[in-house]
């Protein structure tokens, strides 16, 4: 089974070897038929402490690294 990859923005880099990434998703509300935006924060492993607040990054699912860290930063996303 392939590992999921999500794109988001780094909102915190205060922890050692960890960044908090906000991932936003859009969907159509089932009743209101209006586009809704929701966001969720994921803790991701950043071995080199190379990513800073505001960077757009790709994170990939991985084995559990700590109690609430199950994602790894893959690369910085290219601006389109």
UniProtKB/TrEMBL annotation:
UniProt GO molecular function: rRNA binding; structural constituent of ribosome
Protein's GO biological process: translation
This protein's encoding gene: rpsQ
Family: Belongs to the universal ribosomal protein uS17 family.
Protein name: Small ribosomal subunit protein uS17
The organism's place on the tree of life at top rank: Bacteria
Any matching Pfam family: Ribosomal_S17
Function: One of the primary rRNA binding proteins, it binds specifically to the 5'-end of 16S ribosomal RNA.
Cross-referenced PROSITE patterns: RIBOSOMAL_S17
Coiled coil regions, renumbered to chain: none
PANTHER family: 40S RIBOSOMAL PROTEIN S11 FAMILY MEMBER, SMALL RIBOSOMAL SUBUNIT PROTEIN US17M
GO cellular component, one term: cytosolic small ribosomal subunit
Subunit text: Part of the 30S ribosomal subunit.
Organism: Nitratireductor arenosus
